[in-house]
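Lab channel / #folding
Pinned by the channel admin:
"Please post every new chain as: sequence first, then the structure tokens as a reply. Keep commentary short and put observations after the output so the thread stays searchable."

First post following the new format, from NK:
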Amino acid sequence: MDVLMPQMGETVAEGTLTVWHKEVGDTVKSTDILFEIGTDKVEMEVPALIDGVLTEIFVQAGETVIVGAKLGVIEDEASPIISKEPEESANVTETVIIPYSEAPKRDRSMKLSPVVRKLLSENNLTHTDIQGTGRDGRIKRSDVLAFLGVNNTNATMPAPIHAPGVSSSDGITVIPFSYRRKKTAEHMVYSKATSPHVLQAVEVDFSKVEKARKSIGSDWKKREGFSLTYLPFIIKAVCSAIKDFPNINGLVEEDQLVIFDRVNLAIAIDLSFEGLVAPVIVDADLKAVTEISRSINDLAERARTDKLTPDEFKNATYTISNNGSYGTLITAPIINQPQIAILSTDGITKRPMVIEHDGEDTIAIRPVGILAQSFDHRAIDGSYSGAFMRKLKEIIEEKDWLGSIN
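Reply from TO:
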């Protein structure tokens, strides 16, 4: 049987083979993990699928190939038979039959993926420092991050993990891009080259959202274990606004606009400054604020421990990028191709605002933030995007969130 590069998602055209778990001549079972592959979004273990012997390997660890490429061959045999080719002067063909015997257990350090080797090197660790949770005790990226305290809620976030640099005597440091960073860079350049980006932003008063958050926030955190942030309210408002402006929720396909009835909303998640992924909340428009909040937390936790599946990145129709926790004022996000638009949510802080009441102006202190949308000018114009943003602002500012939070 030919071993092929599997399809990892509808829009994923290629992947990198990060590590082989078997060598040529090894006997494999159908359930054995044969190799691992990775994209800028996800790492994935691939089983052998049949019992047999791995007789050939065509693609080495670290190589990137297209979906469907031939990686190796598994012969459906009980034990490996290796034929020794005769020299031209030989009169007979000699066949050497090697009976199967259990191979010695390999050093776990020989089964590390490139991303794990990189993390170990950057943090002055060795494979003996960490207990692996993967197959046969193999160390995974999530094991290293957990060791560093990334997943310990009582620990502080470790310093940003940088690639090892090569320093010269004149004080210059060269930092090679990681695989994930290279793929992210390629996608960003492609998006900017494909779509004429236009940015529009609105200032939004989050007073009613804040009232709802304060009302249930304390009980929510005790019960759920995480905070009820502004983001699920923004997502719910986006889904509501899309109903009036459906052309936002689609993609450009050659010279036509494709609009979707379902709102599958992708959430950009930072991976400890090592890159971004954007898993999808399917049918976000059908979910309550509390359901959206749980979905965000679940996706974020699993993204940072490499537990998302390729299917969780499929079929997104709109994307939201959230930099609010860093206190940013406004961000011009890059469109997640082939979608039409992407929204950035930035810091929400208390500011003085002029409030009109009964024909008189007063100054009040309100929680205010800026929402900024980049859109593809091929698909829609500024007036359509502007009307969508005005509707989004109205929903956030005027909706009775306290009465409709569940």
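NK: The CA atoms of residues 24 and 55 lie 5 Å apart.
TO: also worth noting, Helices lie at 114-122, 141-148, 179-194, 207-224, 231-244, 289-303, 382-398.
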